[in-house]
Amino acid sequence: MYLKKTVNIWLPILIILVLVGATFLNIHLSERFASEDGFATRYMAAKYWIKTGLSPYSQETFEATLELLGESSPRPDSLDKGRFIDPATYVLFYIPLSFLPYPVAKAIWMTIIELSIVLSVWLCLKIVRLDLSFIETFLMSLGALFFYPNLKMILTASILPFYIFLLIWAIWLAMNKQGRMAGVLFFLAFPMLPISLFIAVFFMIWMGARRDNSLTTIFFIGLVFMVLIALILFPNWIAEWFEAYLLLYPHFTWIDTPLMRVGELFPGASRQISIGLHVITIIYLFVEWYGLPSKEQRGLQWKLSMTILLLYLLNPLKPLNYMILLFIPLFAIYKYLNEKWRVGGRITTWLSFLGIGVVYWFKGFAQETFVSAESTLIILLLALLCMLGLQYFRWWALKSSNALIETI
Description:
By secondary structure, the chain is mainly alpha-helical. The protein has helices at 2-5, 7-32, 40-52, 59-72, 91-98, 102-128, 134-143, 148-155, 160-175, 179-189, 196-208, 214-233, 237-248, 258-264, 270-288, 297-314, 327-340, 342-366, 376-392, 394-398, and strands at residues 36-37, 75-76. It has a two-stranded parallel ribbon. Helix 6 packs parallel to helix 17, helix 10 packs parallel to helix 12 (214-233) and helix 14 runs antiparallel to helix 15 (270-288). The longest helix has 27 residues, at 102-128. Mean pLDDT is 86; it is low at 403-408.
């Protein structure tokens, strides 16, 4: 009874202590597991701009990043190779951390990643309305930190988990018809997660059919505002941004979609098969959007799950880092399992969740630690399971909103 009365005192203190402890642990982890580093480029871009006024895209900033990484031994991120290639506005996000010593700043960023992953999984459970106890929700959210793709993002200090959390939060808000706040989060996530534009349009269609255009209005106003702020602070940033991209990738060698991995399974016609699969997937995506305006929560959850799965298959950048989005279709499948078979569904849910985690753990660590090019199995396994599960429960989700629940 006393603990319940004082929860508003001891719970915040406990959370702060856990976050501080996680930060100290991350300092140790970043020293022990030195591989790629996705944070150094952003840290140095913010540090140089706030102290010297140099452009985040400048050669001096690039050289300073390489020098910093030379001291701490990790390699630059495999995508940016030490050059800042984010939209200029996002430099502002890293300014507070740029005043701290780099090891401390990186450890804090890793803690932010961990918190983002835990909250993302918790929101995924709320989005699909999977009925779990508090203990089960806590264990599933915390256990996601040890899922190989998520653990890799933590140890490489990736910048994506924070923006994926903003995207998932935006989805939850949009499903609850909070269009204005959802619009803010969608426009903050979009430049860093281009596939989020399709999810934003998905909800613009759904909310627009209900005569609510608040998400659409805020989204486009926010994008214009971000561009204007960037032009005021960095007048030449657009030209410098494109120049940085061209220096790194004069051709489209950065594209690596999961569907391209499928094409590679057939070396003799990989290009043709890959193009065909992309065209079919895009057509299928828009076919699934047919009838979207009339869907309510149950049908909306299935359509959203399929949309996220198809966008994952089309995503051209580091598919492993986007795999946390597949928790939404995975949890939707678990929801249908629990509806159809109360006891058997719950057992299957936990066995499959643990089984997927074990397969990814052993398959991930069987290769060279944290290599940038992951195996095809790691990229496609969860997506394939989600596709099969969603298609199996298609009728149950879209046509049988008042289905009889089997108790076996």
